[in-house]
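Researcher: Next sequence.
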Amino acid sequence: MAKDWGLERWLVRAIIKFVSAFSVVLFAITFFLFLKRFVKSSVFKMNADYIETSAIVKTIFRIAKDGKLGLFDKSKNKVILGSQYDNITKFDIDHLLVEMNGENGLFSLNRTSVIVPVQYGHIEPFKNSVVKCQNKTEVAYYDVNGNRMR
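Model: Next structure:
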């Protein structure tokens, strides 16, 4: 008597269809998780129109939004200085000169904050851990921590 292979063929086809469908679902889930992680790690890009390709210092990059500059720390994956400045340039190894409306201030890379307010026309290099700042009406001195000296 000949054996009927119809049931076994049907079962093999059903298993193949199940495995194919499972593979598609598994791929979709994996792709979704990858996309979610990629978008989450790239959120900073939504806050900027432009991100420079070369770092201004180590892992710090200038970003631009609406024609204004800010700073992004790639190692921390976050914006450390909002896009509100006309220009940001290197001042020394630990500080950046920030400019807004023709006035200058200093941003500390160690403290990740502005330590000299943006209100001076001229800022001289640090001497003995003190920086001299001038505008039309005053001369001020600040230490490396941003404390105004008398």
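Model: Residues 6-41 form the longest helix (36 residues). The CA atoms of residues 67 and 115 lie 24 Å apart.
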